[in-house]
Specification:
Layout lengths: L1 H9 L8 E2 L11 E9 L3 E11 L2 E10 L2 H5 L2 H18 L11 E5 L18 E4 H12 L3 E7 L3 E8 L12 E5 L15 H8 L8 H6 L1 H17 L20 H8 L7 H9 L8 H32 L6 E6 L1 H5 L3 H13 L6 E5 L3 H12 L1
Parallel strand pairs: 2-5, 5-6, 7-10, 10-11
Antiparallel strand pairs: 1-9, 2-3, 3-4, 7-8, 8-9
The structure holds adenosine-5'-diphosphate and magnesium ion.
Magnesium ion (MG) binds next to loops.
Length: about 375
């Protein structure tokens, strides 16, 4: 991965894009003021009112709106109309007067976006346009200046980090530092990644085959689907549910990653909650306790692999920037936040990869980090 990171810094068009963010300042913790922040992810749209109080403290009020599939796949204009409606509703609900003094606003996108300047997008009224990974890094650095890396583990996965401009060969020469949005989800080195035939089966049916392979092994959008494909094979071979499947099990993406969390959290003697999930979500009645143990074990394997691969990416970045002595990694996204043991599994893998120095690498939850970061970057520019 370090090799691929370096290639991305040297040339355009490499597998890992390594996009410079144009964010050249990190916060000092003394920035103050009230800001609006918008955070558009793959699943949710968050609107936040961020009050920077200085001394590394901030207060945040936020509301979450779900982006329907219709909006996601429809024309951009409809999507942005919806986003504007959400902001208007938020201002009304939280007593912000949008017709009064103007409120600086940052906008976080979780989609790769080749920027040409900090505020060069199509929305000229916005102070700053920020990638969610970059936002998360900045948000965490406000209270912890050792934050050099951030990771998103949500619908997708990505990472950002602080790089010396002198190392960005595709930029020619320069000094100082800049935050790089790696777009590491694109990593796909088949001789290195432990790709199984279920990964290949999943990949073939996606809209972007042979791309984002790392992401497809790690992130919330895909883990449940990998589990579903494995379960179907186990049914076919007669090892699960006496070889009897269900119609719901045959539906692609019907088994959401959130159900893996529920199953992994089920420590009851009879795995009763797992039974419930199988019945309610998958339409599988009459599962035996052995069946449920197998299902739980599959979830553990797929979930653990994801955490360990994410940790490998973190180890690569920490090594790349030579921060093995002290580095905080800010992590945002529902997968990291809600999936049981995800953080500890990452820590275990870091320890295996980096040895005792792994204790210098702090993995920290950065809830709403990308939204806060958008506000902070608006403050910084
Ligand atoms: P976004 O990617 O839009 O910023 P999130 O960070 O909330 O949004 O991530 C959404 C993803 O997290 C979805 O793919 C969903 O499957 C997954 N997810 C949501 N809740 C859980 C949970 N309890 N356990 C595991 N994954 C979850
Ligand atoms: Mg997000």
């Amino acid at each position: 991965m370090v090799t691929e990171f370096k290639k991305g810094l040297a040339n355009d068009g490499e597998v890992i894009a390594m996009l410079p963010s144009y964010v050249i300042n990190r916060p000092t913790g003394s920035e103050v003021g009230v800001y609006l922040a918008l955070d558009l992810g793959g699943t949710n749209f968050r609107v936040c009112r961020v009050n920077l109080e200085g001394y590394g403290n901030m207060r945040l009020t936020s509301a979450k709106y779900t982006i329907s599939d219709e909006l996601k796949t429809g024309p951009g204009e409809k999507l942005f109309e919806f986003l504007a409606d959400c902001v208007a509703a938020f201002c009304k609900d939280y007593g912000l007067d949008p017709t009064g003094d103007s409120i600086p606003m940052g906008f976080t996108f979780s989609f790769p976006c080749k920027q040409i300047a900090i505020d060069k997008g199509m929305l000229i009224l916005i102070k700053a346009i920020v990638n969610d990974t970059v936002g998360t890094l900045i948000a965490h650095a406000y209270s912890d200046p050792q934050t050099y890396i951030s990771v998103i583990l949500g619908t997708g996965t990505n990472a950002a980090y602080v790089e010396k401009v002198a190392n960005i060969r595709k930029w020619g020469s320069g000094s100082g530092e800049v935050i790089i949005n790696t777009e590491w989800g694109a990593y796909k080195e088949a001789s290195i990644l432990p790709i199984t035939h279920w990964d290949n089966a999943l990949d073939r049916k996606t809209t972007n085959p042979k791309q984002q392979i790392f992401e497809k092994m790690i992130s919330g959008m895909y883990l449940g689907e990998i589990v579903r494909l494995i379960l179907i094979d186990l049914i076919k071979s007669g090892e699960l549910f006496n070889g009897v499947g269900s119609q719901l099990l045959e539906e692609p993406y019907h088994f959401d990653t959130a159900y893996m969390s529920r199953i992994e959290r089920d420590h009851s003697l009879g795995l009763s909650d797992t039974k419930q999930v199988l019945e309610d979500v998958m339409g599988v009645v009459n599962s035996s306790i052995d069946d449920r143990r197998i299902v739980k074990h599959v979830c553990e394997l797929v979930g653990t692999r994801a955490a360990r691969l994410a940790a490998a990416g973190v180890a690569a970045l920490v090594t790349k920037i030579n921060r093995l002595d002290a580095c905080t990694v800010a992590i945002d996204g529902s997968l990291f936040e809600h999936y049981p043991h995800f953080g500890n599994r990452m820590r275990d893998a870091l320890r295996e990869l980096l040895g005792i120095t792994a204790q210098n690498i702090l993995l920290e939850q950065a809830r709403d980090g990308s939204g806060q970061g958008a506000a902070l970057i608006a403050a910084l520019v």
